[in-house]
Amino acid sequence: MKPISSNMQFMITTFLSLCVLFISLASTRGEIGMSCITLLFKVSDICTIQVTGYMCNLSFHLRSLATPLLHVIFLSCFLLNCAEEEAGFNYVPGSDIGPDRWGVINENWTTCGTGREQSPIDITEERIQEQPDLGRLLQKYQPARAALKNQHTYLEVEWNGNAGSITIDETRYNVIQFHWHSPSEHTINGQRYDLEMHIVHQNIDNETARAVVAVLYAYGHPDPFITKLEPLIRNANNVEEQPIGLVDPREAQGINTTKYYRYMGSLTVPPCTEGVVWTVLDKIRTVSTEQVNLMKQALPEEFKNNSRPLQNIYDRTIGLHQI
Ligand SMILES: *[C@@H]1O[C@H](CO)[C@@H](O)[C@H](O)[C@H]1NC(C)=O
Ligand SMILES: *[C@@H]1O[C@H](CO)[C@@H](O)[C@H](O)[C@H]1NC(C)=O
Ligand SMILES: *[C@@H]1O[C@H](CO)[C@@H](O)[C@H](O)[C@H]1NC(C)=O
Ligand SMILES: *[C@@H]1O[C@H](CO)[C@@H](O)[C@H](O)[C@H]1NC(C)=O
Ligand SMILES: *[C@@H]1O[C@H](CO)[C@@H](O)[C@H](O)[C@H]1NC(C)=O
């Protein structure tokens, strides 16, 4: 073994100091802390092969210290529930990061407070205009591999293959993921439902151009699609991401698109980006209370109710399509 050079010593010292800093910040910067540990292992490996010296020995000590330390950090993070810290917002009325304050707590979320085309809204009779030219919903869906992800703000099914697209006004949007909010975010003539699914589509050329199809559910019979996911949902508070296998968007959404509402709105979570083409299906599906409760048990306390309050409609109109 050759003795360690002063250059190398300087690099390792810098690295180790940064490492200690990141490990101590690990509860908020978990991923950096993790990559740091991986690097630490690499450094001590290099040390064994090529060099020796005080810094190298230190890196060994740190390495043996870091592993249990990380466990402690992640465990306490799990127990104290770091989700709120990650999301930076919640749904608790009156909280300093609650829905009324989304627009002021982060410089990138101002649209949540100042936007004039925000979602959700009440789909109210007075604003509805029948629009025969809307046509039926042009969907070209196909089954593709997907995974159930616990995003902590909601449960999400995300495709990692091509599950097809929807075409609105000659613009094609690929289907990306869907997720659930409870109770419903949109209301129809003031009536709030018990669950709402958002099927999120994105334009290939422009990621901020989105089309979301919303499906509302009222308490009643269990939803057959959610029934199939139940074993995974039950496990979702332990496992962040679980493969589902093939998921067909048609099965998730249901086939009845004969009547729907169309309006321009936004994402219903920060950053509340506008330019979202909303399609709210009129057909109300059913879901059992047990199924909704099962979804809620996977979410932190402040996200069990993850329904954004209704937003001002301003001068928007709502198109209605029915055959
Ligand atoms: C590094 O540790 C080895 C044994 O673990 C020891 O023999 C050696 O003196 C140490 N080197 C320095 C520079 O501390
Ligand atoms: C859920 O939160 C919204 C917005 O904070 C509130 O208006 C609503 O009453 C809550 N609903 C339930 C069922 O707790
Ligand atoms: C706002 O977004 C920019 C670019 O993505 C990012 O660098 C910055 O940290 C964000 N600000 C906050 C307060 O999150
Ligand atoms: C992308 O889409 C958004 C929302 O529809 C729109 O505001 C923006 O101008 C588009 N960007 C480009 C480059 O077309
Ligand atoms: C679709 O839903 C509408 C109500 O939105 C209902 O009148 C119609 O019978 C349903 N069609 C099918 C095939 O279930």
Q: Key terms for this structure?
A:
single chain; 323 residues; alpha/beta; 13-stranded mixed β-sheet; three-stranded mixed β-sheet; 18 strands; 33% helix; elongated; binds 2-acetamido-2-deoxy-beta-D-glucopyranose; carbonate dehydratase activity; zinc; signal; lyase
Overview of the structural elements:
- The chain has 323 residues and is α/β, with parallel strands linked by helices.
- It has nine helices and 18 strands.
- Helix 1 (6-24) runs antiparallel to helix 2, helix 1 (6-24) runs parallel beside helix 3 and helix 7 runs parallel beside helix 9.
- 31% of the residues are buried.
- The model has no long low-confidence stretch (mean pLDDT 87).
- The structure holds 2-acetamido-2-deoxy-beta-D-glucopyranose (5 copies).
- Residues 106-108 line the site of one 2-acetamido-2-deoxy-beta-D-glucopyranose (NAG).
- One 2-acetamido-2-deoxy-beta-D-glucopyranose binds next to loops.
Provide the fold topology.
Elements: E1 2-3, H1 6-24, H2 30-49, E2 51-52, H3 54-80, H4 83-87, H5 102-105, H6 110-114, E3 122-123, E4 128-130, E5 138-141, E6 144-150, E7 155-159, E8 164-168, E9 171-181, E10 187-188, E11 191-192, E12 195-203, E13 210-219, H7 224-235, E14 241-247, H8 249-253, E15 259-266, E16 274-281, E17 285-287, H9 289-297, E18 318-322
Parallel strand pairs: 1-2, 3-10, 4-18, 13-16, 13-17
Antiparallel strand pairs: 5-8, 6-7, 6-14, 7-9, 8-9, 9-12, 10-11, 12-13, 15-16, 15-18
